[in-house]
Automatic annotation (TrEMBL):
This is 4-hydroxy-tetrahydrodipicolinate synthase. Pfam families: DHDPS. The keyword Lyase applies. GO terms for molecular function: 4-hydroxy-tetrahydrodipicolinate synthase activity. It comes from Kibdelosporangium banguiense. It comes from the Bacteria. Gene3D superfamilies: Aldolase class I.
Length: 261
């Protein structure tokens, strides 16, 4: 059962936009003692923008330098068939689980979303971490559909990034065994009963994230909010902002981001 702070790793790139393995190693070294698992190639890792080569190389580097932590691999692709193919690759690369968003469509039914995850679980024997968000996919998963998805085999967690603390609380209160992780730093105080946190601030301040989970007070939330403001974590290009700070700290070699579509 996953819990605590899981870090959604940024994807360090060199000047040619190839994955910089040495920077991946230093990044994991900088956080590994304060996190419970690694989550490469998700939104903070620019997962929806990475080429297949960049994705493969980042997953391989995270596995190689994991320091014993589980590697939960993000998959952000538009269609179910693409996700299934990528999940098989993740399994071959040694991923402990895949972290999967919904198909990229605004007009999609909750039944279609359920079928997306059911098809994935039927096709590839690898644990599933659900990613509930809207910024990339254009849609979110409702509570009833989530509970159906949670009944599928080996659903090991949910990154709840809908932006609704009320929905997060409802998911936590409902009878199921899936660990619920808040995906927004600014909602941690309101997200009662969560198993942990997954967000970009963990690349920079994992100890602060842990402190917020242990002692979720208004004062601690204010400290988290100040850190997010300082590092630009809640900006639209948060991954670029996090990379810039990591570059200043000499944890990664460049602040280059994946090529825009």
């Amino acid at each position: 059962m996953y819990s605590g702070t899981i870090v959604p790793l940024v994807t360090p790139l060199d000047l040619d936009r190839a994955v910089d393995e040495a920077s991946v190693d230093r990044l994991i070294e900088s956080v590994h003692q304060d996190v419970t698992a690694l989550m490469p190639t998700l939104s903070s890792g620019e997962g929806w923008k990475l080429t297949e080569r960049q994705w493969r190389d980042m997953v391989a580097a995270a596995r190689k330098h994991s320091r014993g932590l589980d590697v939960l691999v993000g998959i952000q692709l538009p269609e179910t068939a693409q996700v299934i193919e990528r999940a098989q690759m993740a399994k071959e690369l040694g991923a402990n689980a895949v972290v999967v968003t919904t198909p990229f469509r605004v007009e999609i039914s909750q039944d279609e979303i359920y079928e997306h995850y059911r098809s994935l679980r039927s096709a590839v024997d690898i644990p599933l971490f659900v990613y509930n968000e809207e910024a990339v996919s254009g849609n979110t998963i409702g509570l009833d559909a989530l509970l159906r998805i949670f009944e599928l085999p080996d659903v090991v967690g949910i990154k709840e990034s809908s932006g609704s603390a009320e929905l997060t609380r409802r998911i936590v209160r409902t009878d199921h065994l899936v660990p619920v992780f808040e995906g927004w730093e600014n909602l941690l105080l309101e997200a009662h009963g969560i198993a942990g946190f997954i967000g970009p601030l963990a690349n920079l301040e994992p100890q602060l994230c842990n402190a917020m989970l242990v002692d979720p007070t208004p004062e601690r939330q204010a400290e988290v909010d100040d850190a997010c403001l300082h590092y630009g974590v809640l900006e639209d290009d948060w991954y670029r902002q996090v990379k810039q700070e990591l570059c200043k700290r000499k944890v990664i070699s460049t602040d280059v981001v994946a090529k825009e579509d």
